[in-house]
Design goal:
Residues 4-145 form the NADAR domain. The protein is mostly helical and 165 residues long. The chain contains 6 helices and 4 strands. The longest helix is centred in the last third of the chain and has 25 residues, at 133-157. The structure holds ligand LIKH6CAM. The site of the ligand Nc1nc(O)c(N)c(N[C@@H]2O[C@H](COP(=O)(O)O)[C@@H](O)[C@H]2O)n1 has 14 residues, from helix 1 and helix 3.
Length: 165
């Protein structure tokens, strides 16, 4: 079965990058994955001054609007690094927040798809032909955190130290 998600208020809305789950990365706490992701577009770019504005944006929608402004100059390697940036942030989100990690685990091996009508890179787009990179990252993180949990359980069973996620 396929699980489609998009809006935060809908079922599985916690999979959206706009969900209000803060992440700490390199000592900085970002309000949402979207805040972090949009800010990373400008690291080392001539428009890096926008980063603090994105950081303090009141909502993920405002952070996204700041990051999507066409007149600003995105870092030159953005297309190369953006999926790595997204993976780092999404992994941290589900490592940090136990409740939504359980929601992610509850999806088992089902296909996760960001049902964005306009985004053919991160989502599936209006006609479902998009690349769905956010869904792919979520499924990768689900596998990675499942493996971590499995090795912790095995370690506990064999009398090792308990160091739960
Ligand atoms: N909830 C939501 N609303 C939107 O308007 C969206 N576009 C998305 N998708 C997310 O948007 C981010 C991509 O932004 P850029 O186009 O690269 O600036 C990414 O977080 C998608 O998951 N979600």
């Amino acid at each position: 079965m396929t699980i489609y998600f998009y809006k935060v208020c809908d079922p599985y809305g916690c999979f959206s990058n706009f969900s209000l789950h803060p992440i700490e990365i390199e000592g900085t706490v970002w309000a949402t994955v979207e805040h972090y992701y949009q800010a990373q577009k400008f690291v080392g770019s001539p428009d890096a001054a926008i980063i603090p504005e994105i950081y303090i944006a009141q909502t993920p929608e405002k952070a996204a609007a700041l990051g999507r402004c066409d007149t600003r100059c995105v870092r030159s390697d953005w297309d190369i690094v953006k999926t790595q940036v997204m993976h780092k942030a999404v992994h941290k989100k589900f490592l940090t927040h136990i409740d939504i990690r359980e929601v992610l685990f509850s999806t088992g091996t089902q296909l996760l798809v960001e049902d964005s009508p306009c985004d053919y890179f991160w989502g599936c787009g209006a006609d479902k032909s998009g690349q769905n990179h956010l869904g792919k990252i979520l499924m990768r993180v689900r596998g990675e955190l499942t493996n971590v949990r499995r090795s912790q359980v095995q370690s506990q069973r064999s009398g090792g130290a308990c160091n739960s996620m």
